[in-house]
Specification:
Blueprint lengths: L3 E4 L5 E7 L4 E5 L10 H7 L4 E5 L15 H15 L3 E6 L1 H11 L4 E7 L13 H13 L3 H13 L3 H7 L5 H6 L4 H8 L6 H5 L5 E6 L3 H13 L3 E6 L8 H12 L2
Helix pairs in contact: 1-11, 2-3, 4-5, 4-8
């Protein structure tokens, strides 16, 4: 599969691949992911769509331009939609789901939107304290402490138990996580305080499918709340599924929604 590029509004080159032929569908992945994370899902959907997977800025073969701003990532998605023919369906995963919803809410030409495990907080007692997380991650990265930045994000932002974080130090994919560590402050900016954006949701009128893995009560509660807030929202809980995208389970759900 050859890599192509589009140029975002600020001049940043954004790398992408396109699978299949048909109506355009763009996949927006989450933290610690590059375009390869969406490849299995893209392959599953390729018989029905032209599926675009891309490296979000600062990752893989895409460029980066300082200073970071969430709006620049929205501009990146706008450039991909223009490349796809000036209108496209969009699927967002994890923090990528939050980014996709923000982009659709700004009026980008998104025909349909599907979101998987958008990590909104609906428990009033919880908060991500985004400025603190962003500041701490920025400090660690400025000091070259990429491994510590990865572990800070895993424990303080994602909420992975400390003993599991320690075990993950020896995982074969750990070097890849450290390679993308500089984008973690980007992620906390996208996540913000994590609260459900009811105002944004209320004005996002395109058909939207909100999906969550049934193994996570936290994600299920967020999905149900977001589905209620969207004018044309519908919710699908995938029994037994965790946070990872299983193309054999998620793929048929997306195919059915985007072909309706």
């Amino acid at each position: 599969m050859s890599v192509s590029r589009v140029i975002s509004r600020d001049g940043t080159a954004i790398a992408f691949e396109c699978f299949g032929q048909g109506p355009p569908l763009i996949l927006v992945v989450g933290a610690f992911n590059d375009r390869s994370a969406g490849a299995p899902l893209a392959t599953f959907l390729a018989p029905h769509f032209s599926v675009f997977t891309y490296d979000r800025r600062g990752r893989g073969d895409s460029g980066d331009t300082a200073p970071y701003a969430v709006q620049r990532e929205i501009d990146d998605l706008a450039a991909l939609i223009a490349e796809a023919g000036n209108s496209a369906a969009v699927f967002g995963y994890s923090s990528g789901a939050i980014l996709a919803l923000q982009a659709a809410g700004q009026g980008l030409p998104v025909s349909k939107l599907a979101l998987y495990d958008a990590p909104y907080i609906v428990d009033a007692k919880r908060s991500r304290a985004e400025p603190d997380h962003t500041r701490r991650l920025t400090e660690l990265l400025a000091q070259g402490r990429r491994g510590e930045a990865v572990e800070y994000f895993q424990s303080h932002v994602v909420g992975i138990p400390e003993d599991v974080v320690v075990q993950l130090r020896h995982a074969p994919f750990r070097p890849a996580l450290e390679e993308m560590a500089h984008t973690l402050a980007y992620e906390t900016a996208i996540l913000g305080n994590g609260r459900l954006p009811t105002g944004l949701a209320a004005t996002t009128t395109i058909p939207t499918l909100v999906v969550a893995g049934g193994a996570s009560p936290f994600m299920c509660a967020a999905a149900q709340a977001l589905g209620r807030a969207l004018p044309d929202g519908r919710v699908r809980i995938l029994d037994g599924q965790g946070h990872d995208m299983d193309s054999s389970v998620l793929g048929p759900v997306l195919r059915a929604f985007f072909t309706q």
